[in-house]
Design a protein that fits this description.
The chain is mainly alpha-helical. The chain contains four helices and no strands. The protein has a domain at 25-71. The chain has helices at 6-18, 25-40, 43-55, 57-63. The longest helix has 16 residues, at 25-40. The chain is flat and about 30 Å long.
Length: 71
């Protein structure tokens, strides 16, 4: 996948959640996993995820069970 600019990234992220009106916990985990995997594939947002990992280790550890690919 090609690297997206900021506007494209915002639009793509919005599309991930546009259809969510109600979700059970499994659906939330799936959506979160998809989002994190997508964001980690983009240089601009991967840097943000790396920074979250460094600055908010407790948050990172809470996400770990949800996402084996990025974490």
């Amino acid at each position: 996948m090609r690297q997206l600019n900021t506007k494209e990234l915002e639009s793509k992220t919005h599309d991930y959640f546009l259809d969510v009106q109600y979700a059970n916990p499994d659906d939330v985990k799936n959506k979160l996993t998809q989002l994190i995997n997508f964001l980690s594939s983009q240089d601009i947002s991967k840097n943000i995820l790396d920074r979250i990992t460094e600055d908010y280790l407790d948050l990172y550890q809470k996400l770990e069970p949800l996402n084996g690919k990025y974490l």
